[in-house]
Amino acid sequence: MHVRVVSHDPLWAALYEDEARRIRGVLLGILVDIHHIGSTSVKGLLAKPIIDIMPVVTRIDLVDARNPRFEDLGYECVGENGIPGRRYLRKGGDDRTHQVHVFGQGDRHNVERHLAVRDYLRRHPDVAADYGRLKSEIAIRFPEDIEGYAKAKDAFVKAMEREALRWYRGAERG
Questions:
Q1: I want to staple 89 with a disulfide (CB 3.0 to 4.6 A). Which of 75, 134, 144, 159 is the partner?
Q2: Could you give phi then psi for residue 56, rounded to 5 degrees?
Q3: Which residues share a beta bridge with 33?
């Protein structure tokens, strides 16, 4: 996969809304909520131009039967892809445009960590700027190696996620 980090594009929000509408149709009857997550959901953050979408469904095991409908929308259905209980779908091949991370409503940990990081970055522009700079530097080092790119930013992301969860849990109480 090509790794390219670009300036925030205000059109990303509209691209999310368009795709979320299609996904709502596929998950009709089991969809609890749907969220724009990842770097494209944070205004001003440098990002890979890939829209990350997180549907939350009543039961994760009900998603697989809808794979043909996702495939009709151009998605490759990859299953858990390293995260137990998730259904991961991607669109666009080497020039990926969308990634969908479906979780069951009972998977509070994974749902919460994605929302926590998104909201934390939205409220902490200094951290978002540091993260954006790091991603940009790493993308230059790994322009055709998504695994190398992910591994190089892993320590930063894990530390940020821990801080984001602490902040998010405190913000929920306050």
A1: 75
A2: -115, 125
A3: 56
- CA-closest candidate to residue 26, choices 110, 121, 91, 123: 91
Dihedral, CA of residue 155, residue 157, residue 163 and residue 167, to nearest 10: 180
The structural domains of the chain, with segments of one domain joined by +, span 11-173
Q: Do residues 81 and 101 touch, judged by C-beta distance below 8 A? A: no
Those residues whose C-beta lies under 8 Å from the C-beta of residue 50, and which sit 6 or more positions away, are: 38, 40, 92, 96, 97, 98, 99
Digit-coded pLDDT (tens) for 91-140: 999 889 999 999 999 999 999 999 999 999 999 999 999 999 999 999 99
Whole-angstrom Cα distance, residue 92 to residue 102? 18
Assign a CATH topology to domain 11-173: Beta Polymerase; domain 2 (3.30.460)
Its pTM stands at: 0.95
- Token match 């530097």: residue? 137
